[in-house]
Design goal:
Blueprint: E1 8-9, E2 15-16, E3 18-20, H1 25-34, E4 44-51, E5 57-63, E6 69-74, H2 80-94, H3 99-110, H4 115-123, E7 136-142, H5 147-158, E8 163-173, E9 176-183, H6 187-196, E10 210-213, H7 219-225, E11 227-230, H8 234-237, E12 248-253, E13 257-264, E14 269-270, E15 275-278, E16 281-284, H9 292-295, E17 307-316, E18 335-336, H10 341-353
Parallel strand pairs: 6-7, 7-8, 10-12
Antiparallel strand pairs: 1-2, 3-8, 4-5, 5-6, 8-9, 10-18, 11-17, 12-13, 13-17, 14-17, 15-16
């Protein structure tokens, strides 16, 4: 059923704010360009009013931390069903963009800026050309959605098409206009779908093996205390919720290689709740880990705090002996369930190196 917004004043006599409208759709687009957090704090805008090869014009384009692209379409005078069809048409063009074309788009948008430099400044990591535009998602921005369009969006999403809707509603309060935002579908589902929907190469059934990216943290601690972790924003942490006890994870340190395989023991926990087993018994992880000082300043921030998944390691190697061969899968999402021949090949190769991959977790 379509989402409806309401905001109430907190007082002895609660009163709802009156709904309103922006002067025009361009006002919202201008707001997003000035502060992309209006849409999401997890993306960087790279294009605006970009013309496709068949004459259409994409409202906004963004890039996510893993190099995937985000196509953003704002509903103007079109009905929601029309804009969904239009966005899918535009996505057929976007998926074919090469690295040099994407660089040119950002150059026009930023008036001469460097995509590599901007990506590094925004996400504190190098832009990997191999990961660039390996997947994409579609975001529809609308004030409302009819039942038919909602069914279409849910149908596509259930079939691993990374598409979602952001609803905006304007309210009047004392002569000012307030803007509220809500998602039709949990953005985590869209992110997961984007990691499984490959836009280059074949797609095949998922083999049940999870990929994990573990970077910028002590691998020695992860091995000694049995965990994987991520932090710095919900984009990095929410995919940890994909993991359940019994799942097998293959762990890669970005720019280094694969370092271990293990079985998940427990679901995701926050840094303030997570405990590790030491020779002196169980202790809070913040009293033990080498990275405790790094995790401390954001430990009480629900958005930015580090989150942990307890793991029983089946086989590991030191970081300096990481497995890094040509043709192995890589991705900057913390957790992914890849659906490509490259992932199947990667698992086949890793099993030759990690001989205890099928050992029983004790």
């Amino acid at each position: 059923m379509p989402i409806k917004h309401a905001i109430w004043k907190v007082s002895q006599t609660p009163a709802p704010l009156t709904t309103s409208k922006l002067a025009n759709e361009k006002t919202l687009e201008d707001m997003i360009v000035l502060d992309p957090r209006v849409l999401s704090s997890e993306w960087m805008l790279i294009g605006r009013q970009e013309r496709t090869s068949f004459g259409g014009i994409i409202d906004l384009m963004a890039i996510a931390p893993d190099g995937s692209l985000v196509l953003i379409e704002l509903k103007r005078d079109r009905t929601p069903r029309e804009i969904v069809a239009q966005a899918l048409d535009y996505a057929s063009w976007l998926e074919k963009l090469t690295a040099d074309r994407i660089t040119q788009i950002y150059d026009r948008y930023s008036k001469g800026g460097s995509l590599d430099e901007a990506f590094k400044a925004r996400f504190d990591t190098e832009l990997d050309e191999e990961s660039l535009n390996q997947s994409h998602s579609i975001i529809i921005v609308a004030a409302q959605l009819d039942d038919s369009t909602e069914r279409i969006i849910n149908y596509l999403n259930a079939r691993d098409i990374a598409i979602n809707v952001i609803f905006f509603q304007v309210f009047e309060n004392g002569g000012e206009q307030l803007l509220s935002r809500a998602w039709l579908i949990d953005p985590g589902e869209t992110q997961v779908n984007a990691t499984t929907t490959k836009t280059k190469g074949e797609k095949e059934p998922w083999n049940g093996e999870f990929y994990v990216s573990y970077g910028g943290r002590s691998w020695i601690d992860a091995v000694n205390y049995g965990f994987i972790s991520a932090g710095g924003g919900s984009w990095y942490t929410r995919t940890l919720d994909m993991l359940s006890p019994g799942d097998r994870v293959w762990v890669k340190i970005p720019k280094t290689g694969y370092v271990g395989v293990g079985k998940v023991l427990e679901g995701s926990q926050g840094v303030n709740e997570f405990k590790v087993q030491t020779t002196d018994g169980e202790k809070p992880c913040m009293e033990v880990l080498k990275d405790a000082k790094k995790f401390g300043p954001r430990a009480d921030d629900p958005e930015m705090a580090e989150r942990f998944v307890k793991v029983k390691w089946l086989d590991t190697v030191p970081e300096e002996k990481a497995i890094d061969e040509v043709g192995l899968f890589g991705n900057q999402n913390t957790v992914a369930r890849p659906m490509s021949p490259k992932w199947r090949h990667t698992i086949e190769q890793l099993k030759k190196h990690f001989k205890q991959w099928d050992a029983q977790a004790k």
